[in-house]
Amino acid sequence: xxxxxxxxxVPADPLRAVAxxxxxxxxxxxxxxxxxxxxxxxxxxxxxxxFVATALPADPDGVSGGVLAGYVVFLLLTxxxxxxxxxxxxxxxxxxxxxxxxLGLVMLVVPAGAVVYYNxxxxxxxxxxxxxxxxxxxxxxxxxxxxxxxxxxxxxDSALGSYQDLDSEHRGSKAAKKVPDRLQxxxxxxxxxxxxxxxxxxxxxxxxxxxxxQHVDSRTLGSLTGWPDDRLATSLYECxxxxxxxxxxxxxxxxxxxxxxxxxxxxxxxAAKVEPAVRANIDAxxxxxxxxxxxxxxxxxxxxxxxxxxxPGDKAGITDALTADSHRVDGYVETGTYNCGVSQxxxxxxxxxxxxxxDFTGKYPHDKNRPLALKIAIAAExxxxxxxxxxxxxxxxxxxxxxxxxxxxxxxxxxxxxxGAVTGSFTLKGCSGCSRYSSDALAQSQACKNTGxxxxxxxxHLPAGTSYIMQKPIDDADSATPIADSHKFxxxxxxxxxxxxxxxxxx
Length: 507
Prior knowledge:
Radius of gyration: 52 Å
Order of helices and strands: HHHHHHHHHHHHHHHHHHHHEEEHEEEEE
Mean pLDDT: 83
Structural class: alpha+beta
Low-confidence stretches: 248-253
């Protein structure tokens, strides 16, 4: 029986091995296809398919390092494995090894093209991610627009952080190129209170915008760098003028908003308007001193004086002018204090009038109204005990036709106050050897009738009619109670009044 001669072994061909390895480098297992290694071909195609499925769609982070390293190792194994198998295996097509090698080199375009495509897709994904981040920042700004600034500030901070990162870390990106326009909107939104003329509300947002150049490159900001300055100066001026008419709690200690204006923008046009506006406001307020509420007007002027004195005028060169304004206020307050005391007296607020007039006469010893203020204080003090004494405002008149002699039968000095057609006061010294009486009946029968004693006396000449007289202690003022009463004096009589002491002073 004839036998089949054995197939001679395929001679080794290094060039063919290289061709098969290069074809496998495409990732499509083409080397295995040419040497008819079907299982290996399927494994190569499946591995490449899994890798492609993992890599696509491309994202900004790219393929994870582990997956990429694993695929590269697998690809190199297919190259080595294919080369070893192709060393002694004939090619099914093409039969010429050089042609197969050329085909392998051409097929390297596939992985190279895939890399180029993937890098482009990855870049597109990165650009889209940055645009999405820009969009989220824009949405934060728009949503914050409807909130109070203090509530919205954290949103503004987040948005600004995104803009700053895009501009500095991704300068060439599409998103970064949009940042300057977005910052225009950012500034406009935060500056909305100023556009609405809500100047007090605009101050903190505008101060915030002045800090933006600390975070964003000036080349990106452009003209926005100084955008808040004039607006902030205007807001400080307008809000500060509001404080002058409705004083803020802090105005007397730090100059308020006008103080900030003079400190932060001393050479601005707004700062130049401060002193003339303060002076005009003082004069306008002072017109109320002759109106229905001189007390309230005087309080406003005192507040204006405190505000004016607190203004830091040195940087703006207006210290002397502001000092003159403070003195101007002092003069108005002097007049206002007197007018206030008169108003309180006329309205029946005798205790307040007494306090005001005592303050006035003590603080302004050279004021032309001081003599009359002293008399109003006397009448007001008597009226606190006998309201009828305050029916009329006292005059500077003195004297009368009725002789009234006052004696003091008490061991302590007393002050006698009187008002009516004339007003005044005097003091009677205490009586040496006099003592307090145990009962009012005993005092009525014995007071001022001891011929052996020397009583301090004082004779007044008062007009006929009703006068109101108060006796009040001097040395024992804290424990004794002043006593006041009305007395009607008629022509043709000589009157005497005697002071004595029981548990408290009495007539």
